[in-house]
Amino acid sequence: xxxxxxxxxxxxxxxxxxxxxxxxxxxxxxxxxxxxxxxxxxxxxxxxxxxxxxxxxxxxxxxxxxxxxxxxxxxxxxxxxxxxxxxxxxxxxxxxxxxxxxxxxxxxxxxxxxxxxxxxxxxxxxxxxxxxxxxxxxxxxxxxxxxxxxxxxxxxxxxxxxxxxxxxxxxxxxxxxxxxxxxxxxxxxxxxxxxxxxxxxxxxxxxxxxxxxxxxxxxxxxxxxxxxxxxxxxxxxxxxxxxxxxxxxxxxxxxxxxxxxxxxxxxxxxxxxxxxxxxxxxxxxxxxxxxxxxxxxxxxxxxxxxxxxxxxxxxxxxxxxxxxxxxxxxxxxxxxxxxxxxxxxxxxxxxxxxx
Length: 355
Hints:
CATH superfamily of the largest domain: Intergrase catalytic core
Number of strands: 8
Mean pLDDT: 88
Order of helices and strands: EEEHHHHHHHHEEEEEHHHHHH
Helix content: 40-55%
CATH architecture of the largest domain: Orthogonal Bundle
CATH topology of the largest domain: hpI Integrase, Chain A
Largest sheet: 3 strands, antiparallel
Strand order of the largest sheet: 1-2-3
Number of domains: 3
């Protein structure tokens, strides 16, 4: 039975909870109205009925760390692990003593809004998506009964870098292909592979000779190279494991390349060239033509942008990139799709004029 009473100008609700045969009080104060206090007590009572009241109702930062260590850390690359450490630190700073069952949708939205004042939207999305994944786990395990992250929106007051800086225009891409094709450097070969496949640096560095199929003109992306650990790792996600089709003419050139003993792209150290090395090589080519300066990862965006500009279906582009969901592709290349939408609108209106 819930007890609802007034303390000064605020209302307090108290509910008896049976924990391992012992009844304990769960109390919450600070409600503006009696109806708010009653609503909270009903929610707690419902949790009791469904036996969902916090068998794991610990401090959210501690629970997040436990979830990460068991379910995430063994599967992630070093770079991805950094995001979880950022979130752990954020939770301890903002909610040092807050239990997971005490967090509301409004609490999480306020956290996102505050963090968004000093961080770009892509960073906010990372924070929201990872915490949302953790919250879904907590719901599935009956630690909480409601997904407080479901209706939270991302917010950022800080402008992202100009997306035009992240990929080459078609004429710049054509010049780059022409220049790089005349080089036998391993880093140049990696640049070409990125242009034609759209693969990440870690995926290209993780290729071995056996991953090349010169009969079907494909590469098999089934692992990645983790430079910090100097060993093979799983790909970023399950959907990152994929077969990528490549042009037959390009594969004829690739067949003439000299592959390393362990890695397809192997430097004098016996390891793949570093990300820094391929970025330096790429920069030399771009500066030579006064082209836009992008990073090696920008070749992945260039690959996708080029295909979309040629009216390749976004569903296929998404699969080719190894995205887990086409919505990731849609959000990443929304600026390009908006340009195409404007062009399609003009075409549509021209057609309708003929009715």
